[in-house]
Each structure stands twice: as C-alpha cells, then as structure tokens.
Amino acid sequence: MPLKLAGALLLSLAGLAAGCALVRRLRLRKRFLRDFIAFLTALETNLRWRCDDIFTLVNSSQELFALPADSSSPFEQVWEKYTAPLSRRFCLKREDALLLGELGAGLGKTDAEGQLAHLALYKTLFCKQLAAAEEELQSKAKLYRTLGLFAGMSAALMMI
Questions:
Q1: Cβ neighbours for 22, distance < 8 A, ≥ 6 positions apart
Q2: Per the structure, how many domains does the chain have?
Q3: What is the pTM assigned to this prediction?
Q4: Closest to 43 in 3D by CA, of 106, 135, 137, 130
C-alpha cells in the first residue's frame, strides 16, 4: 500500500511538472519577444546614427542576436540561417517565425529612411505579438498547471 501511495504521489507530481513545462514554453516566447523588441529599438538607433553595413549594425545592436560576419553571403541568407533555429529554441509560433523572416528579407535593401520605416512597422507587429503572448501566458498558465496536476491525480487514482 505505501508503494502505491508513493507511485500515486509521483504520478501527480509528474502531471504537475508537465503543466509547468508548458508554462515555461509560454514564458520563453514572451521573453524572446520582449528582448527582440529591445533589439529592434537598438537597431533603429544604430541605423539612425551610424553609417555602417547591415551586418555591423545588427551585430552592434545587441549581443543576443549577433550574426556571424559572413560577407560572402547576402544578409537575407545569413539572417534566415541564423533565425531558423530560434523558433524551436524559444517556442515561437508560426506567425513569429514568419515575421522574423520577413524582417530580415527587407533589411539592408533600401535607404536609411526606408529601413527605419521597415523597422518601425515590424516593431509594431512584434509588440502586438508580445501583447498576445502576455495575454496567453496570463490566461493559460494556471490552466496548464491545474490540468497537469489533475491529469496526474486521475492517473494516480486509476492506479490505486
């Protein structure tokens, strides 16, 4: 009997841990979007005040998003290669990944004013994604933990 109770407790805790893992994914996405908006702000400032190529501007904007200095490849290819794994690492949604790709496709292709407008547009779009991520975290965090715990408890009751 004590062995069954210990197993039931472990099943309940496993369910709770699964729920907490889902909450962690939501937090990772929110943190990435917040940091990426800060990166866009820094990039916008650097673009306004410095006359460097796009690789240098991106690399000097924030350490988190430093691109390899590969001058032999076009910026768009380097950006795509760098940002592709970010979706999985930071649990981004498909819309987030598409916005990342579209942002990189337009950087470095126009004059400074065009790039500033491009950055302002994507900063607004990423702010909307951040607001949605915050709302999703707030509405689903408690739900995920509770459902995980109850799923674990249900499995434990079935075991007993």
A1: 140, 144, 148
A2: 1
A3: 0.84
A4: 106
